[in-house]
Task: structure prediction
Amino acid sequence: MSPRRKLGWALLAAFLGAAFGAAVFAAGPKPDFTIAASPSLQKVSQGQAATYTVTVTRVNGFAGSVSLKATELPRGATASWKLSDGTTSNVVPPNLDSAMLTIQTASNTPKGKTTPDIKATSGTLKHATSVTLEVEPAAKPNFALAASPASQTVLQNGQTSYTATVTRTGGFGDPVSLKVTGLPKGATASWSPSSTVPGTSSSATLQIQVAGNTLTGDYNLTIKGTATITGKTVTRSTPVTLIIQKSQGFQIAGNLGAQLSPGMKAPLNLVLTNPQSFNLKVTNLSVGVEDATSEAGCSGTQNFRATQIPAARYPITLPAGQTRTLAQLGVASGDQPQVEMLNQPWDQDACKNATISLVYGGSAGK
Result:
């Protein structure tokens, strides 16, 4: 072979190498997804369910559906799936990114830790993660009893109440019967809606009525709850305190401080005094005009009248140990009692410069 011919082949190889090199391009990242589950650990009692949130994160333009499956479950346990939009399904569509896995254990599911696997598939793409499930012994049927508030103060001839709350555990769902002990003489108890808390309820109200002659003092009461659990009578109790104080009526005073003429009326800004160590809720105030006046020929009841505070304005809270006017308690002059001199068809000259007498009454509670 001549040297010229060898050169021709070498040139041809060089041209071919250049042509092939120009056709090579770098490959981009493949569409894919990842999965994660949270929380990593759940603890449940035998027969209870554990839930985990499985999140699908799509990357590099991946837009496919992802099928989820839970395996390696402990004996007796079953798995179910619900999508983030509430649909029951184990397939996460492109428009969603998470699903809830519920692992329901059975009463015979072994105690201890297991690591269920969560497998995710979309076509040829496969990923997996795992979670930890710790199964504890099933709770035994039981209930607890509590009462609130821990202490109540009531006046002689007054009424107060406590709320008794039953908390059931371990699948217990039977009725609980309530009673109270330690009441002083003259105090009576009643329950609302009933002294028996049915399985569908969790509380009842204890109402205590104190007589006017019940001795004052602090009394330690005990609220007891009794139920039958697996054939045995079980009683739980909780203490509360009842403080009885001497009944002292709140004081009402007031001076009209205005002169009246026929057809004219003026508000009466009453002054209220609370001698108790706790706030009073005033539920009624009344103002009346006595017939006798400072002028013998002027009848108070025939020439004057008093109108009362509107019922909708009650209750009025009177702070403990304080003296307050109605205005200070937020009762506007238009809602205060009004004293009016009537415009009668007879001669009312006898009432000129007469002083009328007003009587006050009211009721309040804690």
Remarks:
- The two ends are 125 Å apart (CA to CA).
